[in-house]
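Q: Structure tokens for this one, please.
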Amino acid sequence: QVPLVESGGGLVQAGGSLRLSCTTSGRTFSTYTMGWFRRAPGKAREFVAFISRSGGDTHYADSVKGRFAISRDNAKNTVYLQMNSLKPDDTAVYYCAASLGASIYNYDYWGQGTQVTVSS
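A: Here is the predicted structure, written as tokens:
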């Protein structure tokens, strides 16, 4: 089991920014590919962003491309999601996820989520 703890969510006005963080314990963080997902009220969970083990490869959902940026600091066991130009449609619970594999969309471990609310 890989404990993942998200933080950084909150209430922000449209056009604003937030940075989410996800940390875990242990010495094997660099062996996991990491991702961010979100679930909006009444909707299915959706992929947001992916980052490879080294951080050299990233992928984004079309809906956030150009506005969100995923990064990681393996020395701090932390993955980040910088969210800029936020829109009300970005309102959701955001989850980080870890995988021992290389799939962009399939993950083995999940955090509890952090709420992001964007007001218009």
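A few notes: Residues 3 and 25 are 7 Å apart (CA to CA). The mean pLDDT is 96.
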